[in-house]
Write a structure and sequence with these properties.
Blueprint: H1 24-30, H2 54-61, H3 69-101
This protein binds iron/sulfur cluster.
Iron/sulfur cluster (SF4) binds near residues 46 and 67.
């Protein structure tokens, strides 16, 4: 596996005049966040995903702004599970609470 270290596509040489706000690589990479990616705009996982690995996206799609497909699938499945689990727990608590406040049936009182 070729190393990404020192690859000019991913790293810049140090220079005393380096300016991260105006370097083209940094300007491009700074935009790689699900918040700024069109394909993520309506995603349920937008708030917790983080966007996955830029290198994986670049390897698969030759574009760091593409999705990291494996991480994307994982993130969506995790957030779906967490929301479903939260709803289930809330329903279970409501049911338990309702059972605890219901009048005791005469047959067992
Ligand atoms: S799960 Fe996929 S589509 Fe959703 S925010 Fe993350 S990278 Fe974007």
């Amino acid at each position: 596996m070729p190393s990404i270290l020192r690859h000019e596509k991913y790293f810049t040489d140090y220079s005393p005049s380096f300016d991260a706000y105006h370097h083209p690589y940094w300007e491009h990479w700074r935009k790689r966040s699900p918040i700024g990616m069109d394909q993520c705009a309506d995603c349920l996982a937008l708030g917790n995903c983080g966007g996955g690995c830029a290198y994986a996206a670049d390897k698969a799609h030759a574009n760091i702004m593409a999705l990291d497909d494996i991480f994307c699938t994982f993130s969506k499945k995790v957030i779906t599970f967490l929301v479903q689990d939260l709803v289930k727990n809330m329903r279970d608590r409501q049911t338990a609470s309702a059972e605890n406040t219901a009048p005791v049936p005469a047959s067992i009182a």
